Amino acid sequence: MAAVQGGMGDADIKTDIKTEPSADGFGNNNANDGRVLSASPGSTPVTPEDQQTLLAVLQFLKKNKLTESVEILRREAGLPENSLDPKANESAGAGSGGAAGIVDLEGGDASSLLSRVTGSSSAGAQAPTKGTVQSGSGRDQPDVSVVLSAYSQQGDPTLYKVYYRDLKKFIETVLDCHRAELSQVFYPLFVHMYLELVYNNHESEAKAFFEKFSGDQECYYEEDLRILSGLTKKEHMRGNETLLDFRTSKFVLRISRDSYQLLKRHLQERQNNQIWNIIQEHLYIDIFDGMPRSKSQIDAMSGSLAGEAKREANKTKVYYGLLKEPEIELPLDDEDEEAENEEGKPKKKKPKKDSVGSKSKKQDPNAPSQNRIPLPELKDSDKLDKIMYMKEATKRIRLGPDNLPSVCFYTFLNAYQGLTAVDLTDDSSLIAGGFADSTVRVWSVTPKKLRKVKSAADLNLIDKESDDVLERIMDEKTASESKIMYGHSGPVYGISFSPDRNYLLSSSEDGTVRLWSLLTFTCLVAYKGHNYPVWDTQFSPYGYYFVSGGHDRVARLWATDHYQPLRIFSGHLADITCTRFHPNSNYVATGSSDRTIRLWDVLSGNCVRIFTGHKGPIHSLAFSPNGKFLASGATDGRVLLWDIGHGLMVGELKGHTDTIYSLRFSRDGEILASGSMDNTVRLWDAMKAFDDLETDDFTAATGHIHLQDNSQELLLGTYTTKSTPVIHLHFTRRNLLLAAGVSQL
Amino acid sequence: MAEERRQKHCSVVLPTESMKAMAESVGVGQLQEDSCVALSEEVSYRIKEIAQDALKFMHHGKRRKLTTSDIDNALKLKNVEPLYGFQSQEFIPFRFASGGGRELHFYEEKEVDLSDIINTPLPRVPLDVSLKAHWLSIEGMQPAIPENPPPATKEQQKAESTEPLKVVKPGQEEEGTIQGKSQGTTTPDGKGKEKGLIRLKPRSTHELSVEQQLYYKEITEACVGSCEAKRAEALQSIATDPGLYQMLPRFSTFISEGVRVNVVQNNLALLIYLMRMVKALMDNPTLYLEKYLHELIPAVVTCIVSKQLCLRPDVDNHWALRDFAARLMAQSCKTFSTTTNNIQSRITKTFTKSWLDDKTQWTTRYGCIAGLAELGSDVIKTLIIPRLAVEGARIKAVMEGPVVSNIDKIGAEHVQSLLLKHCASVIAKLRPQPDNVDQYRTDYGYLGPMLCSHVMKARTQAALQAQQVNRTTLTITQPRPTLSVSQSGLSGSSGPRTPSIIKVPSSLTLMSPRPGTPSQPSPPATKYIVMATSAGAASTQQVITLSSSQSASPVTSTVPSATSTLQPLVKLESGSGAGLTASRPLQKYIVVSLPSSASSSLETKSSVLPTSISSSSLDGGMKLERSESPGASTQSPH
After folding, report:
1. pTM of the model
2. How many CA atoms lie within 13 A of B561 on its CB side?
3. Cβ distance of A232 and B64 shorter than 8 Å
4. What CATH homologous superfamily does B13-86 map to?
5. Fold of B210-329
6. What would the pLDDT profile of A558-593 be if each residue is shown by its tens digit?
7. Are A412 and A362 spatial neighbours (Cβ–Cβ below 8 Å)?
8. What residues of chain B lie within 8 A of the CB of A579, using their CB?
């Protein structure tokens, strides 16, 4: 966990550093205001902070015995020799970091220095400094104590209630248009004030504070409040993940300039330093010009563990277009033409393809270059499969509101509720199930039985030149409808077929991802890296790469021939619950228990999109076939639709009453199917949902959206099963919907 | 709302008493109050943490129920050794006990005799996981197949029929719109507009799909066809298939028209088939029949009271049809009669009226009496018994009077036996014990002497049954579906054998089976019947009876139980140590399984073991269930 924490810190700095220069006047404004209020030593506002940073870095280097680096850095910075001497430092610190008067003595030398650094940096509200400190202290305990020590600023515990009530009264009396925006402050303030009380051992006050004001918080924070309510002692704060999330990340609020001024003025008038300090230290207020947002607009975007995404976080350009399909010579002339079309659809669909903008021969401007990330070469068998795919695609049913797909439901019998994951191959010939008893089972859903390859001795006898050598290597005696694969030592939570149907991936509670051969039905590799349960894994649509994410809060990108991950995506504040590859394989989307979705660039490993708005852990993700949109489903029973290019929420589909475990777009993207724990499969009109968008909204700098509540119009069908939660959905190449689940009866 | 939430969030902390209890269990005798408080807070916090992590595993396991394995995994996440030994899939059977001012919940771990496990035959291997595919929807329509839930639940069907305001039925729709329109135009005020705005359900066409039409054709043909096997299948389908509600109007019309035609043609067989269809429809749990009673009830009543139902009334057994239809009628009265439709009172009135009519023929008379008699003993008491004398006179006139038609005589005979059959048991309950023939004659006229003998017979039978009935019976539904032991259909074995073990009926009768029940095939759900009875003041015994389907051999065991038979699960030791023990004979825990139909063997042979019992009777029952082999006498596990 320690490493994870450190890693997260790193990611934070990256984003922070990136955003800092681009943060125009507001950011500076912010900092200046902070200085005015917290009365920091105003003489040289920059130098002491820089010095503190350097000190922290030096401390870190020294601790890690990198003496040469220490020397070099010290010379470069022109620091005196004794700058690392704690005692000398103390006096220096007292001189420079005036605001941070409290020295945490229990933490020892290192932590006392660090805590002071934190103190002063927090007074200045400078993110980079703090980030460095966090990443600098790679170990868990100092890190925690550093993080917590910021709470040591003592205020009168009895006044907390008064402060909070005061602010509440103020916000209740402001103009209606500002009230909704300012109310956002309540929750983070509440949490931080509560934690401060707990940290300073005012147990009864903390309890009273919690009881008095917890009922005021928005209902979607209930989960977190429940965790907080259990936390009543300082000792509990060590190692509590939720708490660390709160401290290590700033809660992001998006507030209009007018509302912010109002709040600032009020706090200044009241001399309400306690609250102002919290706002300065723990909140990131993203100020925009323009009309304040309405309550519904705010509610749509909030709910995540760390507030909304900063606007800057979603500014990076994302190449969401599809890659050009390699041209494959088809045996028949009429299909040749379709081969040029990316998805090989019949001609009548051409107008639509143009609108999608990825089908014409010339490169789609939004698509990444073909070799942006190296992709595996196509094998002959892959080409054959492509041809099969195109042939099937010509027979595909064109779906729409008047032409709904048929749904075929696969029920797993006698599974005793042990089924935890399901996947189907793209050609819908195989179905695999991961079970709580650690087994992975594969069934053939076509009459073709599953066969193993012959043993090595037998393989030697085969004529390798013969045409049907691929057929001959199979052992007829092993033919059966299903195969069981043993290897994991915990419930199998994620499962994914490779596109060429030769491999199967499974991720498990035991912390490994395993690669299985579907020719020999044995385990080939166990990828170790996540030391905690791996909740999900998925193959890239082009094979070779795969992604996994789990309880350790990082997603990892692997290649099948490397035993170590190629990329580690860290940034989520809680478990990664689901992972999905973008159709062009250049991006990976991850959903998390911190109620955000992040999109990662496979090339750089950077987080390029953060989507907030879900009110519960996200359990399913699906990219639209054209790569432009993302759908996500969570435990709150809602499906949210996102525009990847603009980084905005574009739709909300309400209807389910329980966790949505599976989402899938039809092959042409007209229909979105969702399957849920509430025993229903629902079909939504995705075309309409995306066509109705007013793209003008996107250009607005404020970036807020008006969602109309049209779930009922978009809902095309609801199909109830007999007490069978739907845990997987799959569209066949001809647009037949397959669903799978296990009966709870 | 806020209040509730706050309540929920308030940190609940384990009581310090449990800390003390736990400390004691690991040998720490004196724990200070302060440390108890500190401990309980810490422990509560950690438990909550673990529970939160366990929830994560539940979510990823795609379940709604938290299992012990989730907790194990959550512990593993924290690098804590999981708790071994909690393997139960469903729940952990914590037991509650109190005493000495303490209340405890504990996990009971019994001592298990290994030889016992070795000797019991292995349970069946659980079935392997398999896949089954079905159509959840075909081009947007959900097919009505058993794999899918019924298209409209009974509640929906009921709502449709009982709340016509919300859902306008096809016939009323036009009326509704017209009304709405006229109101909208004539009264331009808000009220009128509002009425006009009522959302009307589009006219439902009640079109049947091709498949449904085929099904309907097949079913109706099979129901009235000549092949009995096919008919049984068709009736089975009607009685069990969900999603027949769309065809219900058709079936109902089919039956009512069928009865109308076949009564005229005196086609007894067809009438019987149609009544069996009615029975099947009524048996279907997914159908809401209320809407079609107006067609079904007349058809059924016709089959009860029609003057002639067959071509040769002197030979054909149309009486059986009348009996069957009367039972159907009684059943529908029971299920459908409400204060609004008053079915029962209306039916009663109809029957009584035609019965009272002097010109009524014997056949109709029989039907009326049968219909009334099936409605229950209260109806018999108030309506039939007072008229016994009059009816007796009429029967006498036919039987002993000048020769009339043979048909009349047969009819009178049947009415007589019917009256005797139904009235005897009721009178047996009404009248005090000494049955005097003369007294009966004065009270009931011609039928008196025969009634008297019937009543006496009924009394002896009732006495026999009473011993069966008055056992304390507790039914426990089977906990796991894999253990399938179903009750036998043989009533003979349970009848005479019981008195030998259970001598004094206990007053605690939880469920007294009706005399007839054992002979009926039992429902598929298996039941264990645990019978407890107090055999005098000296010893308290409890009997577990188990019958398996194949062998039909009841397995009986006696275990001592606490004096309070209502809570046999708690504290057996305390019950035995209550002072009475000294005078009491040895505590017995007897497990006997009988050879099938050898009912008398139990009286003499029962293996008796002195035991120190710590297990509950339920556990005994679970054990027993494993020894299914008929005739094998198994020793108790202790």
Report:
1. 0.62
2. 26
3. no
4. Histone, subunit A (1.10.20.10)
5. 1.25.40
6. 999 999 999 999 988 889 999 999 999 999 999 999
7. no
8. none
